[in-house]
Amino acid sequence: MKLRVCGTTYEGRVVDLRCRSVDGATVAAAIRGARPLPAVDAPAPGPVYDYCGRVHPSMGLRTKTALAAAARSMGHETDHDDTIAELRERLADLDGAEPTLPSARESVDDATVAELRESAATARGRLEARERLGAETAEIRAQVRETTRTLAKRETERAAAQQSRQQRRERAREYRDRQARRRRLADRLANCRRDARRELVDAVADDFVAALAAVPGSTPEERPDDPFDAPPVPAALATLRLARTDAPVVLETDRFRSPAAAADWLDAPVVRC
Amino acid sequence: MLLVVTYTRAARRDLRNVCRAHEDTVVRQFGRAALLSATEFGAFQALRLREKHGLDVQIERVRPFEPEDVPDRVREAARAYEARETASIPYRQFASGRDLPGADQLRGEEL
Q1: B58 at the A interface (CB within 8 A)?
Q2: How far off is chain A from B16, nearest CA to CA, in Å?
Q3: In a domain, B36, yes or no
């Protein structure tokens, strides 16, 4: 690795920054590529580093999740991997975008239309009566035209409102069907990943227990009955010892005689902060 | 009543919070759905969820239902089929030869 801190370039498998005023969180973020400075030239960290890329006294650790990531880094595979890949793909293919619905229209109520129909019929009746009598019809003709036109307009509006309502419901339903499918797939994926994680943890559990027992300076309290309940620092160190660690690990612990001893024990490049 | 159905985890969480805060408006709560009372306040709460979560919240109007709201032949069909002697007989087979509406016929009729 190559690391440049405040004008000094460090190179090699072990870098000791204890006398520099740069904290471990900053260096770990730079190694992850989450910040541009300090400039780091090193292999990219894998998922294990999300959990234990920086080992420090106040850290927390989801041990089994980290250990599963470590097992993956060592090339372990599970019976669930094909299903996981397939479910991921299917989930990605399901478009999650919310559709735009046609805008809602004010509906014309049945009473209004019925009323208009009636007045149109009345007007026509009066026109026919006047025609039979041979009376003057210009005015009533205009009235018939007017009521008929209004009726047609309202009926069109009502049909459009019904159609828009129908479309809104159909599109919303399609979207929700898709959401329900997504949810079912996501649940299955979560279950599969849990099963895979269990399998991965089982595969490396014995090695983990051995590594945990070998962590330098561990006290009896740090070795509970269930090894997965071990405190975060020793658990993280044991996990890192198992994992494939090409990227530098940031250490803020005095467990090791020297940063070089830590690098040997972990079989990893080390930045001591 | 108003039926509120949620389609995401976030919408479901907010629905539960609404139900917890306004028990008097909740008629019944299910996993990711709830029946709210048909009041403006019920609609207000449902619409708040809809504003926040868009189409991930579905709101439907639910009407009370009594068996008497349904035509006699449908009720009789249900009663006769549930009183059948052979448990494994499908309704389609059960209905043919008896004076009961067929399944397709029932499907074709809107309530």
Answers
A1: yes
A2: 18
A3: yes
Residues of B in contact with A99 (CB under 8 A): 55
8 A C-beta contact, residue B14 and residue B49: yes
- Name which of A99, A101, A179 is nearest B7 (Cβ-Cβ): A179
Query: What is the distance between the alpha carbons of residues A52 and B76, in angstroms, rounded to a whole number?
Result: 68
Range of the domain at B92: 68-104
Highest mean pLDDT among A90-94, A199-203, B91-95: A199-203
Asked whether residue B57 falls in the same domain as residue B83, the answer is: no
The CA-atom distances, in angstroms, between A143 and each of A121, A122, A125, A139, B86 are: 11, 10, 12, 6, 69
Best of B12, B47, B53, B55 to disrupt the A interface (most A CBs within 10 Å) is B55
What's the confidence (pLDDT) of residue B27?
94
> Which residue from A50, A39, A46 is spatially nearest to A73, judged by alpha carbons?
A46
pLDDT tens for chain B, 111 residues long, are 999 999 999 999 999 999 999 999 999 999 999 999 999 999 999 999 999 999 999 999 999 899 999 999 999 999 999 999 999 999 999 998 889 999 999 999 998
Whether B78 maps to a domain, the answer reads yes
pLDDT score at B51: 96
In a domain, B109, yes or no: no
Quote the minimal CA–CA distance from A213 to chain B in Å.
42
The verdict on B45 and B76 lying in the same domain is no
Interface of A with B (CB under 8 A): 98-99, 101, 172, 175-176, 179-180, 183
